[in-house]
UniProtKB/TrEMBL annotation:
SMART domains noted in UniProt: HDc
Domain HD/PDEase: 23-146
Species the sequence originates in: Mortierella polycephala
Descriptive protein name: HD/PDEase domain-containing protein
Coiled coil: none
Amino acid sequence: MSLNSSFRKEAEDLVKEQMAAYDPSHDWLHVDRVRRQALKIAREEVSQGKTVDIELVELAALFHDIGDAKFHKEGQPTGREVVMTFLSRFNYEKADLVASIVENVSFRKELAGIRNDWAESCIELHIVQDADKLDAIGAFGIMRCASYSGYKNRPLYDPAEEAQLNITYEQYQAQTKANTGCAINHFHEKLFRLKDMMKTPAAIKMAQKRHDVMMEFVKQIEEEYSMDE
């Protein structure tokens, strides 16, 4: 089942309004890419005999960055609250499930290592997680990393700053709060890890090419800085 046009339009308008407060790495165009990627993965899963709620995937992908912790300010409604308020207007019966997926999409949540039976088995969650990760790597991932670093006024490359390999949830939280780190370190700390965190067969296949693009990019950066070209 897919969303009807008027419902989809209102959902898109809400997302555009929410994303207008974010930087270009988390704008409406990012959300739309994740939505399209999620639907592509979902259809691939269906073609392999899996049961997938396509409507749920699309809604969760559309709303996945609402209330993003990187942009959320004290006193603002949470992503769950925004999503539930919107969907209650339509008496949407799976509103709580959409909100639960939105709450669990981020790398930050996966890094925290909080596991439960639902998160381990919900294929719609896995699809949206994978779609979001795919947009964080490859060519778009490179541009998004640079964009967010500029937004946070972080260095693009600081050779004096060592990357925190195998960064923990606590280290990631502390780094975010202190607004430290540089763009190239973000590849070593997070982006290079995403390939091995994919959960659906389609995303696993797509991730390798994008991973290789990033590896080549970082290698070129290091060569240019060292002037060993």
